[in-house]
Amino acid sequence: MKTKWILTALMALTLGVAAFGVTGCSKSGDDHSGHAHQYTCPMKEHSDVVQDKPGDCPKCGMKLVEKK
Predict the structure, then answer these.
(1) Its pTM surpasses 0.70
(2) How far is residue 56's CA from residue 52's CA, in Å, rounded to a whole number?
(3) 3-state class (DSSP) for residue 65
(4) Does residue 58 form part of some domain?
């Protein structure tokens, strides 16, 4: 009886880990949260430069960084 309980617990744990691996913690470029990314110039003088995709600042040429 104890062995059956342990096997059931291990199967549930394995399925949980597999489900999390398939659906969670994705580092891909897809953003499923519904929030658009914004990128801005790291120089304070150019904080008015905001774009919805990565690129270079049109004022100084520095790489835009993601706004937190």
Answers:
(1) no
(2) 12
(3) strand
(4) yes
Q: Which residue range forms the structural domain that includes residue 58? A: 37-68
Q: How far apart are CA 42 and CA 55, in angstroms?
A: 12
In a domain, 55, yes or no: yes
Q: Is residue 6 part of a domain?
A: no
Q: Which amino acid is present at 47?
A: S
What pLDDT digit, counting tens, does each position of 10-22 carry? 888 888 777 777 6
Number of structural domains in the chain: 1
List, for residues 3-57, the tens digit of each pLDDT value. 888 888 888 888 877 777 766 655 555 555 566 899 999 998 998 999 999 999 9
CB 50 within 8 A of CB 40: yes
Angstrom distance (rounded) from CA 5 to CA 10: 9
* Angstrom distance (rounded) from CA 43 to CA 37: 18
